[in-house]
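Quick one, T. Sequence first:
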Amino acid sequence: MTLLSLDELIFSTNGSLVLPCDFIGFDSVCTDSREVCKKSLFVPLLGENQDGHFYIPQAIKNGASAIFVSRVDDEIKKIASENKSTAFIFVQNTMHALGFERKNHDERIFERDAFSKIQCRFHKRKFEF
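Structure tokens:
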């Protein structure tokens, strides 16, 4: 199950697609490239001594289908052009984008759960009559 569509992901993070791609969806989110598996969204985090963008090739090798980037330089453009099945989404801050993606996903789950509960209550009442 895809957590968010590409349009929802871009909208919820106020991001933009770096290059056109063949997005297949994502069903997990990782900040550690070693934990990325097929259909993961990889979020490279920036720290005082580390730049997660360095691990983008490893994330792609492990199956990332979407990647947040907070810079679009020649290296990122080259990697994106060589990996058309991976969506590269430019965001101002990858950590903030991770929070927005999570919030949007949680709201969708809540709406789905609330709808399911309404349906269950309706069916329960229906059967009680």
